[in-house]
Design brief:
The chain is α/β, with parallel strands linked by helices. The chain folds into two domains: 8-225, DHBP synthase, CATH 3.90.870; 236-312, Threonylcarbamoyl-AMP synthase, C-terminal domain (Rossmann fold). It is built from nine helices and 15 strands. The protein has helices at 13-24, 46-56, 71-75, 82-91, 127-136, 156-163, 201-208, 268-284, 300-312, and strands at 8-9, 29-32, 37-42, 65-67, 96-101, 118-122, 140-141, 169-171, 183-186, 192-195, 213-214, 236-238, 249-252, 260-261, 289-292. The protein has an eleven-stranded mixed beta sheet, sandwiched between helices. Helix 1 (13-24) packs across helix 5 and helix 2 packs across helix 8 (268-284). The protein is globular. The protein binds threonylcarbamoyladenylate and magnesium ion (MG). Residues 143-144, 152 line the site of magnesium ion.
Length: 320
């Protein structure tokens, strides 16, 4: 028999130590939660987080849910108000994700939060997820462990079928109990139900003391990745530029003359890892006209181009 393309680790001490070590060196490890299997990476490591998008073949960089071991770990990353503390006390560990203001200096990769000022946090209840988070000791960014556009996995076998050869390991914790993703509650302003999921809205309302508003189209983005302005630097961007015109700052890709380079080597994973940092630096430089090298429309390049096109789209308040 050929060697399996995806190591399946037992959820025992040895398997969890191996999984934690893989995460610590920037690897991608799928693991069970009570909802679905997640595809985890160190949320502080730009390159590892970029690897999640590459493995899933996601055409866009959506913000990811950060999984942490307990409330204290969550509080080191997000700012909790009294409401957030109340729902966390009631439903964590469990299938509830809270979107909260991101603390300055929390050390989270901007690719994991899609450059937003908020962060999605959850403390999963699955004993294997909890043991892995304890062994790893840091925040784990994890979307569902399926190729983009496919059904979320609820067994290790689903993960093997979908992601063999694209990730480092899967920890086999059997079938997931809940089987639908976590409920997402936005508490960075008025309470908003961003996604229905494993915790019923009625139960949330009882603890909150109010019914969270349903996320409606236009009211607020359910998937913030859909909003151009979240990703846009202040300057006007010109894409697929062969070079800079006078007055433009050049954001390059590959071996080109430029002011900032997404990846000199033309490596799409490196470019994805650098993307948000480059956009922030363009703002810090005060760049008001930006030329951007062409990025190949393949693999992670599709997500990079999606983001660049949103950043370049005409928008209210942009410089003429
Ligand atoms: O049950 C779950 O939540 C599973 C397991 C693995 O934990 N994870 C999961 O992740 O469903 P994912 O990446 O498929 O869903 C993330 C959702 C997206 O809809 C995204 O838009 C939203 O979370 N999200 C993340 N950060 C956000 C933010 N700062 N503001 C609003 N929505 C956010
Ligand atoms: Mg998913």
């Amino acid at each position: 028999m050929p060697a399996p393309a995806l190591p399946v680790l037992a959820p025992d001490d040895a398997g969890l130590a191996r999984a934690a070590a893989l995460l610590a060196r920037g690897g991608l490890v799928a693991f069970p939660t009570e909802t679905v299997y997640g595809l985890g990476a160190d949320a502080r490591d730009d390159r590892a987080v970029a690897g999640i998008f590459a493995a899933k073949g996601r055409p866009a960089f959506n913000p990811l849910i950060l999984h942490v071991a307990d409330l204290a770990a969550a509080q080191a990353i997000g700012r909790f108000d009294a409401r957030a503390e109340r729902v966390a006390a009631a439903f964590w560990p469990g299938p509830l994700t809270l979107v909260l203001p991101l603390r300055d200096g929390a050390g989270i990769s901007p690719l994991a939060t899609a450059g937003l000022a908020t962060v999605a946090l959850r403390v999963p209840a699955h004993p294997v997820a909890r043991a892995l988070l304890a062994a790893f000791g840091g925040p784990v960014a994890a979307p569902s462990a399926n190729p983009s556009g496919r059904v979320s996995p609820t067994t290790a076998a689903h993960v093997v079928a979908g992601l063999s050869g694209r990730i480092d390991a899967v920890v086999d914790g059997g079938a997931c109990g809940v089987g639908v993703e976590s409920t997402i509650l936005g508490l960075d302003g008025p309470a908003i139900l961003l996604r229905e999921g494993g915790i019923a809205a009625e139960r949330l309302a009882a603890v909150l003391g109010e019914t969270p508003r349903a996320a409606e189209a236009g009211a607020r983005p359910v998937a913030p990745g859909a909003l151009a302005s979240h990703y846009a630097p202040r300057g006007v961007m010109r894409l697929n530029a062969a070079g800079a015109e006078p007055g433009e700052v050049m954001l390059g890709f590959g071996p080109v003359a430029c002011d900032l380079n997404l990846s000199k080597a033309g490596d799409l994973t490196e470019a994805a890892a650098n993307l948000y940092a480059c956009l922030h630096r363009l703002d810090a430089m005060g760049a008001d006209r930006i030329a951007v090298s062409p990025v190949p429309e393949a693999g992670l390049g599709r997500a990079i181009n999606d983001r660049l096109r949103r950043a370049a789209a005409p928008r209210p308040g942009a410089l003429a």
